[in-house]
Structure formats: C-alpha cells, structure tokens
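agent: user wants the full assembly modeled, not chains individually. Plan: 1) parse entity lines 2) check alphabet per entity 3) run joint structure prediction 4) return tokens. Steps 1-2 passed, three entities, 1366 residues total. Proceeding.
--- entities ---
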Amino acid sequence: MSKKASTSRRIEREALLPIYDEVARCNRCGFCLSTCPVYIITGEERAVARGHNAHLQGLIEGRLEMSEELKVPLFDCLLCKACVENCMSGVMTHENVIRGRSVYMDLLGEPRLLKFVFRKLLPNPKKMNFYVRIAALGKMSKLDRAAKALGVLKWFGRDRDKMVDLVQRMPLRSLRERLDELNPNPQSTNRRVAYFLGCATNYALPEVGLSTVRILRAVGCTVDILDNLCCGLPASSYGDQDAFKGLARHNIDLMARLDVEAIVTDCGSCSAFLKEYSKVFADDPDYADKAAAIGSKFKALSEYLLEIGLPSPLGRVDARVTYHDPCHMSRYQNLVSEPREIIQNIPGVEYRELPEADWCCGAAGTYNLGYYSQSMQVLDRKMDNVKKTKADIVVTTCPACNIQLAYGTRRHGLDCEVLDIADLLDRALKLRQL
Amino acid sequence: MLDRKTRRLLRHALGEDNIMEGVQVKHYAVDGFQPQVVLIPRTRDHVERIVVLAHEEQLAVVPWGAGTQMGLGNPPRRVDLVVCLHHLNRITNLDPENMTITADAGIRLAMIQESLSRHGQGFLLPLDPPCGESMTLGGALSTNASGPCRLRYGTLRDMVVGIEVIIPGEVEHGGQTRAGGRTVKNVSGYDMGKLYIGSLGTLGIITEATCRILPPPEDRATVVGAFSGSEDPWRLVEALQESQLLPSCIEFYNRETASFLTTNSNVGFNSEGGAWAAVGFEGISEAVSRQIEDIERLARSDGVKEIQLLRGPREKAFWQRYGQIGFEIRKRNPWSIGLKVAVPLSAAQGMSKSIDDKLLRMDVAAYQLSRGGSGISYAHMPLSEKLYREKEKSLADMVEALREEAGDSDGASVVVEYAPPAFKEKVDVWGGVGGMLPIMERLKKEFDPQAILNPGRYVGGI
Amino acid sequence: MGKSQLVRKIESIVGKGNVLHRHTDLLVYEYDASLHRGLPDAVAFATSTDQVSQLVKLANSLGMPFLPRGSGTNLSGGTVPSHGGIVIELSRMNRILEIDEKNQRAVVEPGVYNLTLQNALAPLGYFYAPDPASQRVSTIGGNVGENSGGPLCLKYGVTTNHVLGMEVVLPDGAVVKMGGKALDQPGYDLTGVFVGSEGTLGIATKITVRIMRSPDAVKTFLAIYDSVEDAGQTVSDIIAQGIIPAALEMMDRLVIKAVEESVHAGYPLDAEAVLIIELDGLKDGMDRLAERVIEICKRNRVRNMEVAASEAQREKLWTGRRGAFGAVGRLYPSYLVNDGTVPRAQLPRVLKKVAEIGRKYNLPIGNVFHAGDGNLHPLILFDERDKQQLKLVSKASDEILQACVDVGGTISGEHGIGTEKLQAMWLLFGWKDLKAMWMVKRTFDPGNLCNPHKVLPGIETVEVSAAHAG
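--- prediction returned ---
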C-alpha cells in the first residue's frame, strides 16, 4: 500500500473510531428494513440502517476503503430517523451516517458547488441574496426552462434540471426585504421572543415567515427578527462540519447576547438542528457554556404557541385539513400532537388524520435533487395517502416538506393547498376580522 | 416361485413360525395378485432383514397392516412378499406432559385411542378415518387417511413429529432411519415425515411414529339436520364460514348414506330429506352450547326440516357408523368403486352436483358424503359384477369427465380409492401430477433403487 | 468466466442496474441476522419467476452456487453464501397476488413481509397463523424456507401446517407447481418437504397459504414472577390442565430490562421472569378459562397479573417481546441465540443447565422463548469483535445444544440449521439418517448448487464403520 493510501486509511479509521461501538451495536435484526422509505422503494441493503452500519464497520475494520463507491451508500439516506425510532437497540444510525459523510468529504473532497454554497454563500447573506435573485429572475423569465431544455443545469449534476420544476416560483424579494410589510411590535407586552429566520423561509416561502411574526405579535409577543445565518443543517448533513460549525458559532454569538424568553422558528428543520447545538459544542471550550445557556430557549412555533396560548378569537376556516409530520418535527423533536392540537382548535376545520403521517415526504433537504427518482417514489406514496383523506388543505411545519408536497400536488393533479401551520393560523386570524 | 435358497434365507431371518405359505396367502392378494409368501415379523430387525433380502433378491414387497385400504393404488406390477406388521404393536413412549405418543406402526388406531383415554385425564389422537377401529397406524400413515375431524385438527402430516422408516436404498448399512424427534417444534433437517406419509409404502416401510396428542375437550356434541334440497347444506357452509363458529367437522351426505346410517345407529329421521348435514363441536362447555344454539338457528333460516342433537353414546355410535360406509359396501359388493374428489372449496358444490348428475344419467346409486369445509367429496358406488360390466365404460368416462372439470391447477384431484382390478386397467386411479412426476420418480429411485416396494401402485406407475 | 462477463450475463436477465457486483455493494450481502459471513460473487434483483428461472439456469451453466434471499433476517446463516455464488434477491417480488376468502387462501410472492399479509387480512376478518417475532420484516418466502413458528404456533401450528401449495423454481431452473388451493393432492408431499428446507431444494416464487377467521375474542395477560422456576412450572401446569393457550411466552430479567428500555410497555424491571399468556377463541367461556389460568399462576406464586386493557396495550406487550433479540443490543453489541427445543416437562431442568453454562464461561445469558412448546432461545450476550469471546460463546452454545439433546429435545425448533448448526446435526442423527436426507437433496439438486453446505453436514468423507452406521 502506498504511503498516501495508508495515511488516508489511518485518517478514516481514526475519524470513524469514535462511532465504532455505536456501529457495532447493530446486531442485524433487520427491523429497520420495514421502516426505511429508501429500502422500501429500492429493496437494496446499502440504503438501510443495517447496511449503513455494516459499511461503516467495514471501513473501521479495514475491510473496506473509503472511495467513490461509498458515495451512494452514505448519501442515499433521508436522515429521516425512521430506523432509529424503530431500532430495538437504539442505534443512532443518522449520526453514524453523518459522521461517515464527513469523513467521505474529508478524504475524497467536497464537490465544488457544495463547498461554494456552504463556505461562500451561506455565511455571506449579501452574496447569497445575489445568487438567489439570479435564480428567481431565471425562473420568472422562464429562462430556467430554456436552461433545462438545453441541458445546462445538468452540468451541476444529474437531475439538477428537475430543480426547475420542484420549485414552482421563486420570490424576487426575500422576507428580509419585506419586513416593512409587517406591523410594528405590540405596545405593552411582557413577552420578548427572538425569531430565527431560516433560509428556506426567507428565500422560498417568505409569506410563511410573515405569518409567523404576525401571529406571535397577535398573542402579545415582542418579536426580534434575528440577523441570523443559516442554522447549518445542510452543511452538517452533507458532512461539512467545518462550514456548519462556522455558521453555528456566528449564530451562537448572536443569540447569546439576547434577553428573550424563547427563540422561535417556523422551520421544523431549523428548530430540530438548533436544539442540537448544545450537544455538538459540549466539548468546545469557547462555546460550550454559551450553547448550553441558549439551548432550552429554542422552540418550534407550534410548540411555543401551545405553551403560551393561541391567538383568540380565531375566525372560521371551513375546510378538510390534514397534517404531514416533518421528520424533523416528529422524530427529531417528538412534536407530534402539538401541531394537530393547534389545527383542531381552529373553528370550522374538519381534521382528518393522514395515513402514515410520518412517512417522509422525500425532500430531506436536497435529497430530491441528488436522488430525484427515489425522492419521487417516496413522495408518491405520501401523495397516495393524501388522496385518501380527500383533504382541501395539507398542513405542515417545514418549508422543505412544504415545497415537496406542493410539487406532489401538481405531480398528481390534486386540487389541494399546501400550507404551513403559520399560514393557516394567519388565515384564521384575518378571517376573524370579517 | 421363490427359490429354495431364498426360502431358506427367509426362514433363517425370521424363523419358521413367522412365514405363511400355501393356500392361506390368497387372503393377502392385492388386486388379484397373490404373494408367494406372507411374512409376519415380530421385531424391527426382522423387518430390516426382510428389506435387505428383498433388495438383494429383487423381490416385490407389499407392507400390510390391517388390510383395510389395500384397494388403494394401481394394481402392483408383481407381488412376491406380503409383510404383515401387526406384531409391531407397542406404545413405546407416552409423554402426557409433552403431549406426544410414540408407537409402533403395526398398532391399531383403536388401541392407541383406548390407551390414551385411560391415561390421566384422558387424551386423544385427533384422527378419525373410516375403518378407524381396525386400521393400523402404519396404514393410516402410508395412505394419509383422515376423517371428518380433519377440518379442525388437520391430517397426519400435521400431527407427526417423528418417524422411523426402513429404506431399501440404505440397505448396505442396515436401512433403519429416523427423522424428526419428540418435540412439537423441530426444523432439524428435512421434514422427511411429509414424504413418507401418504407415500403408500413406496419409499420405505414405516416402523414407528411419534404423534402430537391433545387433551380431551370439556364438552362435545353433534347437530344433525335434514334438508329438502341438496343445495341447502352448501348454503349452511357459507353461513358457517362467515360466522365465528369453529366446528370440528362439517359433513354432508345424501339419502343413500342417510339410510345406511339409520340402520344400526339409532339416528333416524322422520322426514323425507334430500340432503343431510352433521356438524360437530368440541371445546369448553359454554362455547359448545353457544355454537349449538347458533347452528340450529342458522340451519332453521336455511330451511332445515328436522334437527337432532347427538351427545354421548348416541353421538359416538353415529360417527362410528359413518366411518364404516366404504368398508361395508366393499364387503357386500366386491365390484364396487369408490371415488374421492378434492377441489378448492368454491368449486366443491359444483363438483358435487356434477357427480349427482352423472350418476343419475348412468342410473347408478351412490353413497355420497362431503367434508363440507375441506372441498373433499366421496362417492361410494355399490356394484354387482353384472352392473359393473354394464356400466364400465360410462364409469370410466365419468372419472375422465370429472378430472376434466376439476382441472389440474390448484392441486385438484379425482382419485379412484378402490375398484375392481378390471377398472384399474382402464383408468389411472390417481390422475396426473403434472410437472412433479420427474421429481417423484427420482425420489423413488433414490429411496428404492430396485423398486421392490409396492412396485407400480403409486402415482405415475411408480 | 471473468467478473464483467458474469455481470453482463446477469444484466441481460434482470436488466442493468439490478445487479450488484462491486466489493462495496457486496459487503452488505455477506451477512444476515446470524454471526456468519460470506461474500457473494453477485447479487441479482429478480422481479419474476421467469427471471429467477433464468438466473438459476445461468448459475447451472457456470457451475456456480446460488441461493435465495428475502430480508436476510435468517438466524443460522441460511442466507449467507457459503462458497460465493449468486444471491437471488427476492425483496422486489413482494405482491400479494390474491386474497381468496371463499376458499380461505391467499397467494403471495415470496418477498411479501409476513406482517404485510397480516395487515391486509385483518380488515377482512382473517389472519395468517404463523407469526414469527420477525414478522414485520421477514418474508413469507423466508418463513417457508425456515418453517417459521411464532408465539401463536402453540395453538395453530407452524408454517408447514399452513402452506398448501407453491410454484417453485427447481435447482435446474425448471418451474414446477406443487399443491394449490385444494387439499390432498396425490403423490409425494413435495410441498411438505420443501417447507423448512432452508432454500436448499429450490426457490419458491409463488406461495399459497391458508388463512383463517380472526378469533372472536382475545385475552392477553402479563404474569410477573420472582423466580424463573415458578414461571416454568406455571407453563407446565397450564398445559397439564388441558388448556392450550394461543400463546405462552417467557422472558427473564435480563431480557425484560432491554425490552422495557426500547418500548416502555410497563414491563417490571425487578421481576425475575414474566409470562405473556394469550387466550383466544369464542368469547363464551373465556372468562372462566381465564379464571383457571389465573388460578394456576397464583398456585405458582405469581407476584402480579395484568390483563391488557386495550388493543394498544396488547400491541405494546407484543412489540416488546418480538423485538427482544434486537433490544439486547442495548446491553451487549452481539448475541448468539440458541434454538433448542425440549419436551415441556424438561424446561426447568434445561433452564438450570443453561444458567450453569453461562456461569461456567462467564457469559451473560438472557432467556426469551416460546415456553408453551418448549422452544428455548437462550441469548448468549457478548461482543463479536472480540475473537476470544467468540470462541467461548461457540463452546457454550455447543454445550447448550447437547443439554437439549440429552433430555430428548432437538437442536432447532424454528431458526433452522443453516451453517451454524451443521455439525450439531450429528448430535441428533446418525449417518444413515443423514443419508436419507441427502437422498432428498440429491433428488432436487443433483448438482449441489442450490444454497450448498447448509442443513446437512457432509457425509462422504465419514468413514463408514459398523459402529458409526449403527
């Protein structure tokens, strides 16, 4: 073996050794196979928790070398935690997979596009705005379709051209550029909260953010809209720990200075990930205390609203409504009943439980771009369930799910609206004035 | 004729007293083929020696229990030795805590049941084939004989957990082999019992088997109903299927069978019915009572003309008589033919009607009975020689027509269970087994390379 | 034949993208749920009987071994290639082809999960009796291969009692139909011998099973004991009284701990043993039957008895029991599970012996098993990365099997012989007995390519002396 090869083997072994015990705890009972959406669709062992752990164990024990061949095994995973939830041994496979991805990136290098986004764009809002605007303009002018037809987007990767259809429209102005549309904070208030604005909400679904702030102010909160950066989830999921930590540190510094009762976000993924900050930085001498101090303040919107009470009264929304559990809400935060309780408290709503409500929508951040066909199969099963409910509105609490489900309704020709819970409440709020 | 050397070897192996020659052997003919000698082994070793010798000398061997089902199968290609196993008749292990019983193959089923009933709270082997009184365990195993209670308890293939067989293919080393064991769950090695059971002794001679037994039910009863039309009992089956009832048996039968049952059994009916049904229940008393109520109600809504509830000795006598039909008919009319038709449940009523129609057209009477929940029907046709000769062709055509109707998908079959040898020349008694025949032939070649056991009697002329 | 040529040939049968051949991809097919490993040469995903047949013919033409695989949850190495070859993956053949209520049959492809079939039948008021603990992920094809049992088999029987017919691809690639919806097909019971043959006699591509009406009423108890002996005696007494519950399962303290951590069903952490007792049938008289059972438990010093108050509660109890093997991963990373089955009355004795063996080798052993039919599952807990421990575990396992055989039991009640118990077959059978089984194997698979080196230990090399043959 060449010196370079043996060095990289040592690196990968060392980097993975900390998860060896966790990985070895998988005793291969196979129960994960019946819950993993990717396995259910492909039937391939490399796609399921048992397989992931086996690959990682193989790497650690030197029976396998990190190579391109491990790309699909490590990255074809929704990180939905269905396996973890059902694992009798409680193996934290999602963490093992992320660690594996991280080592993959370290050894084989991160794709330039990802590096660019995670290290150049996300930490720099101005630059990010610029590129997003280009994309938005492209979408508006249908240049995106031209690009698709010419196969230009394929340069960015297989199936990237599908991105064109996934997002129906890209707003020209982000939420941050529309803050003037909001009413000011209420006069007298004894609640101060910070609003953590996630990237997807900011750029793709600004109405949701506007709704969230309006609702919080309607129940008497003074809302501080934070100047936060990306929470770091996309970078972390792809294994770029450096980029993620850079973003996180900035956010922690920002939030540590706050004097608020809660740090609320309407993005299910952000709230799940922010709640992990204290664990991630537990051994960091500079950030451990700061992260721990703000740890308990993070709240998902529906979680917080149930704590402090919904706006009252609410107007009638006469509709059949169902709810999709984002993986980050149900499995990462155990917030299952909260959104449902809120929905069922809105007058006029006929609530219908979605079969397999916590079956992943297939978005998994950007999984739908890298593994389009599989993502669609996962989505199709979700949409078949939505059809069964005959709902007018599908509510969810995560922008990625929101976009994916909206795509699903178009794909299946369903006459059904997809709304964030903030949108639904906002609608009820507006209707009470009538 | 057996040569002198062979006879001497036999005498040496078994002892003079255990060999029967001369005129008596005519009682041990199979489809008219008389054996040269009848052997009566006393031990497993005897049986083994017989098999070894027969293998070496290429003598055709017919194992014989109580002889209740020797009519089953094609006529043998030859018969040299008949081996009577009734002296191998001990219960070698009765384990009530484990609920298994191990017994020699030559023991009569009645003997097993009796021993079980006397032990502790009493136990039972849930097996009630026709001629159950005299049939031996080995006979039941080799023909996979079953009776009405198979509906609930399955057949021997579901009850046997261990088996011992003497195989010609192993004779260089003795021939005795075991499979399975004594435990009710066992996947150690192949499930050999499945092959031996129902193999008509063509793979080996079964010498011992271990069966699961059950504790006796708290209560049992049989409800018998007389209906006007032959479709009525079938509607009852449908109703039963949709209900929560768990009968231990559902039997339908026709007028001929009903009159047979009436003689000697105390279960007469006043009304003139077209079809009868007898449904049995066993279990805890409350459950049995409730089911009796329910079935009476179902039967009434089905238009039953008369109902009788049988318990105790009356019930016992009824089923005993029921099990004697085939045997009695064969005894009285040696030219009789018995058919067994097995089809999926949904086709059973149609087949039954088809049999009725054909019999009517031929003007041949038959004692018919159906295992209502299993899709299996029997038709026993008593025939004198004269009648047989008259109807031979139409009977053969009927078998072919029924086979055509039953089709060959889904494992359906029409089997001639007994018939005069002349009929067996005309009709393959078993019917075809499709693509499985080559495997079965290879299996036979492995286990009995010289084809000494019941040669020609099995499916495909195996 | 070169690797790429093999791959191309397989691709021509199942299509590009449906073959795995790179080392990285094969690595996740070298295991099942046992401790055995063996790398295949290729994995082919089949979606039709015809494809399976062609793959088998291809393997034959190359003299290459092959074996079927469903979910790979086999506990004895049955789905691990012993000598490379082609793994024929059946997980994509997962359709329920027919549910025929009138005939009380269902026809399924081999890749259908047992639980999927159950869930399809339940709303119709039917169930499929064999319910192995792995049901949520084990396939009907796998159940057929192993003749799987499950808690309900005490009352209803095992897989072989409920499989009535199959379409099988024979080891030479020929497709043959056996049995069907009708009963009593004449001829040798090939269906019967196929069930439990662990994929060594061919590959089932369609399976016809019996379905039964769901019982009128179900009552589930959790009986809590301060001693394993008392629990064991309760089991014997219940059966001795002529009561056959639908299920009668036992778990000991070690396993309870692991299971409760996983499912939080309310299992008592300080109990030495618990019994799950389930009665089913007509509701008439069930209360009285339940009383009798409670009485027997009390006579055996049961500490407490809880009745599952709702379907949800009952499900939780069973989820815990079913996931027991996986759950012990919370205590130790690996386990070797024995599957010895003994006559019921011998249970207390054998349990004692198992505990002794554990102490002798200083290995923790948890017990979870089908007490009602004497089918033990001692879980020897350890870390398989420690090769020394693995050796000790093997020895302990052998001794446990011997203990089962010594009391008239058998070495496998439901998990199969596979690779793991190959040599242990000699504890039960002599040369002649195994030769008869080899006759069956040779009948179906004269080339010995269909999942070779499983179930039957080799006998050719054994010297046939008179003593050995006896």
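agent: reporting back. The first strand of chain B starts at residue 19 and ends at 20. The mean pLDDT of chain B is 93.
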